[in-house]
Amino acid sequence: MLVVNRFRADPAEDLRAELEAVHVLLADQAGYVDGVLGRSLDDPALWVLATRWASVGAYRRALSSYDVKLHGVPVLSRALDEPSAFETVEPHAVLNVAQARVT
Question: 22-36, pLDDT tens digit by residue?
């Protein structure tokens, strides 16, 4: 499972340091596969934190861990309001239902 969180940085804030710290917290959680932090070449105020997880359950459990709740969620909650969780598409894999999930 792939999670893509995009952020728009205020020029006065040090978003890079905050996202690097969140990435370290997430990487320490069970089910974390890998991740990367990036900044747009075309719009330097636009950042992305992309992580891969063993399953959606692993990602949700990571978000509910104490350290991530305390230090990570305040930063992650500033992500752009757009879908962020994606299933990875492998050759010949059966995909999830082709409709939006309502929570």
Answer: 999 999 999 999 999
